[in-house]
Amino acid sequence: MEVTLKVRRFNPEQDEKPYFAEYTLKDVEPVDRVLDLLHHVKWYIDGTLALRRSCAHGICGSDAMRINGVNMLACKALVQNLIKGERGTIQVEPMYGLKVIKDLVVDMEPFFDHYRSVMPFLVNDTIPEGGRERLQTPEQRERFDEGTKCILCAACTTSCPSYWANGTYVGPAAIVQAHRFIFDSRDEAGADRLAVLSEENGVWRCRTIFNCTTACPREIPVTQLIAEVKGEIGRR
Q1: CA distance 153 to 155
Q2: DSSP assignment letter at 99
């Protein structure tokens, strides 16, 4: 296959505004990933291209970006799913809603600030019976299982129009992380997390658009988990 890779470039040290650079790649295999194409550009064509990647196997979440208008992981995006026929164009951009540091690299600190605000850790000061383990039934574990799959790639949060409009919104990823502990039978800080999410920039800024669910590379039902948190606030 022949692929034209159209990459949104921006170096704040020398560019006045972003621009698209095009690279024509030949002999591309249908099962090649967008990450493979970006590697080819960086390693053999233009070493100034900046992008994040680590494991390259859909676990670390570091190579999340906007591909053909949709947030996804470059290491999981196959050429054959983006192009029909022997040739075509793939457009790659940094995720929306976060400041661009260079090219496809964005500043993740605001995202992680929201993540930390919901106390993403188990809180329990009660000594368990027997002093060893805090036991759960399979049903109790299943209650929050979906939220444990999050890899903090920010694909969901940066696909959210509410987040684009107001970066102080805590965002879908942080709410998913809060859900994971709010419904954990061992945790004792659910009320504190719900108080954070009840604030002006908390869960109620969600407009149930479902972009977050579509963008999640781990297939987490993000919108459903957000609705469950809303319901729990109402219940309590």
Answers
A1: 6
A2: -
Q: What backbone phi and psi angles, to 5 degrees, belong to 116? A: -70, -25
Question: Which amino acid is it at 187?
Answer: D
Determine the longest span between alpha carbons in the chain, in angstroms. Answer: 65
Burial class of residue 186, CB neighbours in 10 A (0-12, 13-18, 19+): middle
Nearest to 71 by CA among 163, 176, 174, 170: 163
9 DSSP β-pair partners: 19
Backbone φ and ψ of 63, nearest 5°:
-100, 30
Would you report the helix, strand and coil content of the chain in percent, each value rounded to 5?
35, 15, 50
Both 86 and 121 in one domain: the answer is no
Same domain, residue pair 125 and 100? no
CATH number at residue 47: 3.10.20.30
Residue closest to 101 by CA, chosen among 50, 43, 61, 67:
50
- Alpha-carbon distance 12 to 58, whole Å? 29
Residues 169 and 96 in one domain: no
pLDDT in tens, 52-104: 999 999 999 999 999 999 999 999 999 999 999 899 999 999 999 999 999 99
CATH number, domain with residue 168: 1.10.1060.10
Domain ranges, residue 60: 2-105
For residues 113 and 200, state if they share a domain: yes
Same domain, 129 and 188: yes
Looking at the DSSP bridge assignments, the partners of residue 88 are 3
pTM: 0.93
